[in-house]
Amino acid sequence: MRHPDIPKWSYKLFKGFCHKDFFEELQGDLEENFLFDLEEKGKKEARRIYRLEIIKLIRPSAMKKTSFIPRSLGQLARNYVLTSVRAIKHNPGYILSNIFGLALALSISTIGYFYYHFNDTFNKHYDRAEFLFKIHGERTGEATLGSSPIAMAPSLNAAGIDAMRYHKETIAVRLGNRLFQESAAFADPAYLESFELESVSGQKIKIQSTNEIFISQDMATKLFGDVYPLGELVVIVFPNEKEQSFVIKDVFKDPPQNVSFHFPMITSFDNYTQFYEVEQNNWATYVDGTFVNLKDMNPGQVEAHMNTLIEAHNRSNPERLVSKFRLDNVLIWPTIENELVGGSFWNTLHPASVIGTVSTSLAILLLACFNFINTSIALSGKRLKEIAVRKVMGGSRKSTITQFMIENSLMVFVSVILSFGISYFLIPAYNSLMTQEIIQLDEVPLKTIIYFSIILIVFVALLSGAYPSFYISRFSSLEIFRDKLVLSGKNRLMIVLLTFQFALCFYNFASLYINVENSYYQENLDRGYDLSKVINIPLYNSAQISELENRLNQHPEIVNVSGTSNTIGFNFKNSSITFEGIEHEVADLSVGTSYLQLMGIRLVRGSFFSNQYESASDQIVINEMLESQIGQDLLNKRIRYKDQLFTVVGIVEDFNLRPVMFDNRIKPTILRASPENAYRYASLQIQGKAKQVNSAVELIWYELFPQQLYKGFLQEDVMESIRETNTIMIYINLFSAVVTILISALGLYTLIALKVQRRSKEFGIRKVLGASKKVIVSLLGKDLYWILGVAIIPGLASAYLVNDTVFDIIYAYHVKIGFNHLLLPSIGLFVIVVITIGYKVMHTSKLNPVEQLRTE
Amino acid sequence: MKETGLGEFQEIVLLTILILEEKAYGAKIQNEMSQRLGRTISRGALHAALTRLSEKNFIESAYGGATAERGGRRKRFYSVTNLGKSALNDAKTIRDEMWTLVPKVHFQ
Questions:
Q1: How many folded domains does chain A comprise?
Q2: Among A16, A52, A56, A20, which Cα is nearest to A34's?
Q3: Domains of chain B and CATH, by start
Q4: For residue B1, what pLDDT band results from cuts at 50, 70 and 90?
Q5: What is the interface pTM, i.e. ipTM, of the complex?
Q6: Domain residues for A14?
Q7: Residue A27 has pLDDT above 50, yes or no
Q8: Which residues make Cβ contacts (< 8 Å) with residue A313, sequence separation at least 6?
Q9: Which of A144, A166, A472, A792 has the most crowded CB, counting CB atoms within 10 A?
């Protein structure tokens, strides 16, 4: 009986853990003291002391001696588990390394799973997703339009269809006297009815008035250092310097990463039409997306109505003729988003990257399972007598199989638990590598995690436990007792599995090396111009250039300033020229007269533009590729471009027009002089550290143009995408290489160590009879040479093929994979293998045969 | 010199049991010790010491009768065994011997 004032849960806890021999005494003493304290010190203090006493009693001497095998399992199952635990205790080192390897592989397959999950649940965050559609405009012979005319939604609304517009723009936020570049979404009120957004306090966000704005949690902390700045004002600076302050109505929770819509702030669509001066019923102005919420209609009806609007659209857009408007469900749309023209929504991961990650993680998981199987087979060789005894005592083959299966499940179970621990540290590290957080643990429901682990345990335990259990339960006990059965290392399955493991190791190791080399190659690739010494500043109007030039020329670290309308590496347009009646497709850049010198473009023959635009207006500079395509000396020849004749004044070396990604290869290029009133950028040639100069220039910019956002960027930003891709590739490869090698090396070591144990007498006798160390080493390594020799061929061949194909797809220029790229990693892998097993082998070969033979 | 196998805390527990004579049970020992040492002794710490002492056979224990103020739970009374007493004696002898060897200068 418990005194009513004694804390209930502490008492229950104590009763739960206290050994029954002590409970009466201890609880009696505690209660006696409690009653004393109750009178002396009051109820609160007495209860506090009691709780403290209970906590201090949590010590082994007062606790129950518990067994970690649950009693509820039943006697038979308990025995199976008990035997398994004993078997594991016999070889803790090997089994722990096995479990660890499997756990590592499981952690990685978690990443694979999350990649799949990311795409699978894309946009499913929205409850009404299956009824929500986006309007796309099909065009004959051209890419489908993702964006749609601003007038579309009002026209559909008039016909009783629930349509809504969403548009995102870059704006600036003013805070004190500084401007921050941000983006804001503008949406019809119906948008938030369909694509629900939840506020921090759990309410549905509704756009009600035009002077209100909703901001994200990140934005709230960034702007106000406050998580909940309701009622505060945000000043937004639109292009053409219009300013407007908005009241923060609410703060919304960031949606998961795998939805199409991401914005730091959202406000009424009417603000877009007002501040960007666009008309509601204009068919020529486009917004990022128009969405339809189908309530009681089918997509066909809406599409039929939309197609009556084609004529109105095409009349206003002769350059963008649409043949058909169609609806795509928001669950399907993300998979085609990057094929669409216009709009900037988030889309699903490229299927190749999902397939790549999933297959890599499956390969690693398979490798770990194979390793597990191998070690299990090798270890079971030591347990033959146990199996024989079981059989003699009347155990059936079934019970032996059950025993082994339970053992394996137990080990896999431990691995799964361990892998959660590893994932916990691994996933943040992995996410930080990627631009997008693909793995969001908090977005995955607990149920999924539990199902996922159960499937893993069953799958891996069956896969890795089945073979050893069926294999070793087969032997007859008589043969085992008579020592007739030789379970040598020559198990065919083991050899096949090891070969597969090492093929994967060769593949990963070579891929890693190839990717590192490629990154080095691309980092040092000659772009044809100077990357590190140029800063570009987008201008709001061309007149800004002269003010900037005057002010910047005083800065000691700025060597040269030039205006330009295209910047090499970031933009150009496709045009055509005519020479001797033949038309040629060219890339077309319009640049400032001194821009080419400033960029460090190298002249082959002739000269750059004249300094004044007036004399340079009919001059043209071409690259070597265009000249060789036309096939004759073009210097001082005349070329027709848009019905005007230009004189070729110079021929320059080829240079990259874009980052060397995808199919951005060098093209035949023309460069024309741009009139000063068409300048869109100021390009600065600088000395010293580009980043520091850029921040200095930013300050100067705000002195000159305090109302306008500084958007200057480094020429080196051209490298950004490629560096990012390379880093990801290297890390993924590094990671899988390390894991596969770690697992394989652990497995290999285990196998060799067990082989040494089993054949120790044989080696002893061989040594007594005069075998040299060399003989022993070659005996132990014999199979291994074969395994490595066979594994190297598929491993390296696939490394070559896969990387070459992948490089061709994602890079315009990449390192040519040569013999060296395959040879060096192979040598590296051999060295690792030799180090792993070398010690054990050398140690065995040096053992005194007396030691090996003396036992028994 | 003989190893008594007696820690300072255990020694104090033994002495307290001797002081309390027949009335030595858990709560009583705990309170007596807390008073003498001038600090709170937790029942957990005492339990650990008592367990160690019984393992060494320095003390023995027996249940008393049911009591009302403890929710009807019996008290367990402890007494020091002869082995315990001799261990205490040894510890005292060792200390006394050592005290005589300490030069008086240190305490002036």
A1: 5
A2: A52
A3: 8-101 (1.10.10.10)
A4: very low
A5: 0.89
A6: 8-62
A7: yes
A8: A137, A149, A152, A283, A322
A9: A166
